[in-house]
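User: Can you model how inosinic acid sits in this protein?
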Amino acid sequence: MDSIKIHDSKFSLLFGSEKIQAAIDEMGKQLNNDLEGKEVVFLVILNGSFLFAADLIRRIKFHCRISFIKLASYEGTSNSGKIKKLIGLNEMLEDKTVVILEDIVDSGNTLDSIFKVVQPMKPAEVKIATLLLKPEAYEYSYKIDYVGFRISSQFVVGYGLDYDGFGRNLNGIYVLTE
Ligand code: IMP
Ligand code: MG
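Assistant: Here's the modeled complex, given as structure tokens:
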């Protein structure tokens, strides 16, 4: 399928399944090289990262822990209003190598919220692995250690990423055309 329609929007194929798997292969090799011998905890940021994480983690050859976490907004008492809360983080992260697995880094707000929760837990180090990065939209200075694909600031869907809840089941990644 080279193009698809979700609601009234049209999307065209950007990365097919083979390209995605090749990028994940490469990232898996890098992680195996870099992190072998460390106490690694992968933090999978749901929902979008579920396919990427499942494919990447199957390539990891060392013993590791995996936690599935989700950011939820709630009304905080601070004057900044909405605060993000992390749910599902049951692992102890102290002295561990934490690897955050993201489907896509856009503004970086999600990453920032995660760092604010993870850093006080005193991990030895925090690495970031993302399948997709929109460099022009990224507003923070956290180093993105592992990147599958760099893309322009366009909206994409598929392979875990959704448009209004749909499209996560697509094998490829599609970009909004009209
Ligand atoms: P950020 O917080 O702005 O970096 O955005 C990160 C989150 O926004 C991702 O984890 C996605 O859930 C969502 N997102 C950003 N860009 C896209 C896109 O192009 N398609 C689908 N979801 C996106
Ligand atoms: Mg996400």
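A couple of observations from the model: The chain has a mean pLDDT of 93. Residues 17-35 form the longest helix (19 residues).
User: Helpful, thanks.
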